Amino acid sequence: xxxxxxxxxxxxxxxxxxxxxxxxxxxxxxxxxxxxxxxxxxxxxxxxxxxxxxxxxxxxxxxxxxxxxxxxxxxxxxxxxxxxxxxxxxxxxxxxxxxxxxxxxxxxxxxxxxxxxxxxxxxxxxxxxxxxxxxxxxxxxxxxxxxxxxxxxxxxxxxxxxxxxxxxxxx
Length: 171
Known about the structure:
171 residues, alpha+beta, 3 helices, 33% helix, single chain, 7-stranded antiparallel beta sheet
């Protein structure tokens, strides 16, 4: 019991000064910019209809990739599967969009920008985000950091599987 309490206090103190979570990943792929964009649009309408979205991490229902649209994301967890809403903005097809957490039902403030850059022989899919969190939300930060790593690992696997289906490969 003492060990558990000590661990909790140590983890809590280590996050006391850190309120901002930075997250993201960059993937290099042979998929076309339009193909990636189309899959994201499908994902933000209903992720069950997308080849790319890692539905084992979260599912999405929403209005798709258009300015001022809203999506609802349900995070898959063995303990609890909360649903949070996000606002889509700064949509420039087929290159970039931004999502931000709606304050009405999300414990964090912030969001991310998704960018798909075309470099001729390959594309990069870049996910770059940050959340500001209450100082007391250290358990939520720990959960999100673990979730984020798992989500991006699964997204990478989905990208590689979709590359095979699309019959492309990086040279």
